[in-house]
Amino acid sequence: MIIPTFERDVTDDDVFQAFDLSWPGLEKVEAAYGKGDLDLAKKELVDYMLLRKSPKYYYDYRALPLRPMDIDQTPYFFQAALGLNGSLKEFCLYGADRMLENTYVLPGRGRGEVYLGKDMEDMIHFDFIKDQGKKHRHSLDMFVRGQHFEYMAVAYHETGDLKYVRKFEQVLQKFFETYPLQIVDTSPSANRFQFDEDRDVMSVGWLTLVYISLFYTRLAYEIPYTLAFEIIKRIWFMGIQFKRFETDSYRAYNHHLWERGLVPFILAVMLPEIPQFAAMKERGAAIVERHTLEDFNKAGGYSEHSIAYWSGAALGEMTTRGIILARLNGEKLLDEEALERIRTSFRLLATLASPGERYPSIGDNRGPMIDPILGLGVLSLDEEWCRNLLAKRQGKEYSHDSLPPLYYANDESGFTVLRNGYERDSDQIIMSTKCDCGYTGHNHMDMLSLCVTLSGQELIGEPYTGKLYHNIRMGSGQRGYMYNMGSHNTVLCYGNPIQPDRMYANKWGVYRPDSPIVAFSQSGQGAYVKAYHKAYTFCRHTRELAYAKDKAILVRDSIERGNRMKESHIQRWHLMDGCSVVDKGKNYIIIENGGVRALMLWQGADSLKVWKNPVLYPEIFPDEDSVFPIIDASFACPEEKTADNATAYISLAIINVTGLDVVQDKLEAAGRRLEEAMSSSCWSTVDEPDDSLPMVGIAASLYDVLRG
Known about the structure:
By secondary structure, the chain is α+β, with helices and mostly antiparallel strands. Helix 6 (147-159) runs parallel beside helix 8 and helix 11 packs antiparallel against helix 13 (281-295). It is elongated. It is found in: Periplasm.
C-alpha cells in the first residue's frame, strides 16, 4: 500500500476507504458514502463514534448528562499527567483557564508557561537541525503531544461552560494549521518523522492517542461534526504511519516499546474497524512482550536505571496502558512470565516508596509521585504490596503482613533500601547499586550514590535532576554535570569523576559501570550492606552502609590503591531543597530541614567544605541563593602509607539529633567513639558479617553517646 506522507494531502475519501464499512454499526456511514454524500457520511461516522459500545476505553464520558471526569484516581490515563505534581484535575483546570488566555502550561506545574500571542501568532517552534544547543526542544515536544486538548475536556466536563468548547475549536484549528505532519524519514527505522518542525515518532504516537481519547469525552461531540471528522482523519493519517515499522529491527529501549509495540497494539484494539490497524495487533503485542521479558528483569528492576522513567514512563505511561486495555477488551498482550515481571516490578516500587509524596531522584528526571504508581499496581495487576501500602499511606485499613520488607539489597534490580517503617515520619536510605544497565539514555554515573531521609524529611539526595533535565541545552556544561558523578552523593577518587563532564554533555546514553553488592545482613537492630565499583580502572571504591534502626546511619568509604596520586579523594553530599547547615566544626556538620536535625560526624576527613556550585547559576537558577549547599569531605591515605596499593578510608555517621542537646563534650565523646571503632578490625573484613552486625552496633552506640 502507499502510505501518505503529508497530513494536508489526505482526502475524505482516503478516510472512508480505510474503514471496513461493512462493520456492524457502520451501515449508515456506508449508505451515505455509497450515495456520494460525504457531508452526511462524516456526520454518521462521528455519531458512530458516540454510540459504539465496543471496544472499551480506559474511561467513558460520552453520555449525557455531562459529568465531571474522575482523573485523580487514574492520572496515568492522561498525557497531562507527565511530571504529575499534586492533583491532576486542579492542574488541568488551571491549564484550561490559561489556554483561554492563549498561554500554554507545560505538564507538571512549575515547568513553564508559553504565551502563544494575542491571535496565537507565536506558536511554539523548534528545528531539530538548527536549534540544537540553542534552546530546549521540550516545549514543542510537549505541545505537539496534545495535552492542552485534555485540559479543555476536563474543564468542560467540570464546569459545563461552553467557552472551553469554543476555545478548543479555535486551538484545534490553529494546531492543524501550524503543525501539519510531513513525513520526511519514511524508513522503517525512523526516530523522527519531521525535522524542521521537530516531530519524533514517540510524540506522534501520543498525539494519536490523545485524539482517540477525545471521542470518549463530550468535547468531540460538542464541536461541529466536520471538525470532529478532521480529528478522525488525523487519527488515520498518523496511525497508518506506524505500518512503516513492520520490517524494523528490534531495539532495546522504551521508545521502541512505545512506537513499535504499544501504539500499534492500541490502534488495533481501539479501531478494529480499520483493517490496516487491526493487522498491526499481533506484531505489536509480540514487541511489547519481548520488551517486558528483556527490559524488566526477574528482580523487578528495569534496564533504564531511572526511577522516573521506569515507573512513570515504561510502566505508567506505557506498559500498564496496554495491560489494562487488553484486559478491558479480552485481548492477550503478555504471557504469565511477562506479567510476573511487571508484578515483581510493582513490588519493588512499593519497597522503594519514600515516606513523602515522591520517590527519590535516581536517574533522569524528578522522582514521580508515589501514590499514583502504587495505584497502577493495584489497577493493572491487583498487586498486594501496592494495595496495602497505598491503603496505609491513605489512612485506610491494610494488612500488616503484606507490606514490603524494611531492608532490601539487590544489584540486579539496582537498589539498596534500609528503613525503619512505612509511616510518613520514617527513615529511609536508598543506595544506587546496579549491574548490567546496558544502553540507555536515562542512566547516570551514580554508582553507590545515597539518598537519605530521616523522620520523613529529605536531607540528602539529588535536588536538581528534574530542573536540569527539563531546562538544560544539549551540549551544555550543566547537562554534562547532571549525568556525571559530581552531581551525585558518592566518592570522587582523587577529586575527579571518571570522565570529564563534557563527555556526557551531548547526545544520549550513559554506559553505567556495575556496582555489585558483596554482603547484606539484617537483624532486629538494623542492617548492613557492602558494595563496590571499579570503574576508575586504577582504584576501587567500596562503600559499606549500616543502619541502626531508629538511631543512626554509618557510611564507610574505602579507596583501594588510594595513594597513586597526591590529590585527596572527595566524599560528596548534596543537601535537599530547604535543608541548611546550622553548625560546623572540624569533624562535624549539623544540618536541618523541616525541623529535623541530623549530625554528620566524620572520622578520617582531612577537611570539610560547604559550597554551592556556580555551574548552576545564572543559566539554570537566577542566583547563588537559589541553589543548595554541597558538603565535600576530603580524605587521603596517611602520609606514612607509602607502600604500594595502600587504601584510603573515611567514615561518616549520620545521626538524628532532633530534640537532642548536642553539646561540645558529647560531640567530642562521639568523635572518640567513632575513631576507636573505625580503627579496630571489626569493619575491615566484613564480607559475610555474622548476626552481631558490628557496624550497626557502632552506629547505635554513637546515638547512645549523644543521648548521654
